[in-house]
Write a structure and sequence with these properties.
Distance between the termini: 26 Å
Helix content: 25-40%
Strand content: 15-25%
Number of strands: 7
Radius of gyration: 15 Å
Largest sheet: 7 strands, mixed
Shape: globular
Length: 170
């Protein structure tokens, strides 16, 4: 069951390493079209994922999106889903993710993931691939879940967690 909560009330519950998930991007029509296509092809409500990172009082998301892996404030996004993973955050985890910042996004890997094919092992990333490899690197095995929908499904099946729908008011 998905619990709906306002961002302002739920923000303090989001911790570094938690999975953040999107179905749409109201700020960018082109991005929204791509997310719609992803949801259509994958038969999923989920089209994009990122990893939460708290730095001081800032809540950020590390995500692989066109044109590259980046860090942005979560508050720059609008409606999203939060899946807590209760990770005991370590500096090594941060290093893994920060080493990926600025690397290219891979449309090729995204298409292959949707087709169920093996992904290239290179320095190009798509969103679910980055998240899955991050979790694998810290000991959370999610199998070959390389689409946003598959990743969410795998996390919910293998981890003792819930999913929250968050609305960010602007």
């Amino acid at each position: 069951m998905i619990r709906k909560v306002p961002y302002i009330q739920h923000r303090s519950q989001i911790r570094s390493g938690d999975l953040l998930v999107w179905s749409k991007n109201p700020q960018n029509k082109f991005s929204n079209l791509l997310l719609f296509i992803i949801k259509l092809f994958t038969q999923s409500s989920y089209a994009h994922v990122g990893i939460a990172w708290k730095v001081g009082k800032r809540l950020l998301v590390i995500e692989a999106t066109m044109p590259q892996v980046r860090i942005i404030p979560v508050s720059d996004k609008e409606e999203f889903y939060h899946i807590p993973l209760n990770i005991e955050w370590k500096k090594d985890y941060e290093v893994f993710l920060l080493d990926k910042i600025g690397l290219d996004y891979s449309i090729f890997d995204a298409v292959n993931a949707f087709l169920g094919k093996c992904l290239e092992k290179d320095d190009r990333w798509q969103c679910a691939e980055l998240a899955n490899e991050f979790y694998r690197s810290i000991g959370i095995e999610l199998g070959n879940a390389y689409t946003p929908g598959d990743l969410v499904e795998s996390v919910l099946e293998t981890q003792d967690t819930s999913i929250y729908k968050i609305r960010v008011s602007k």
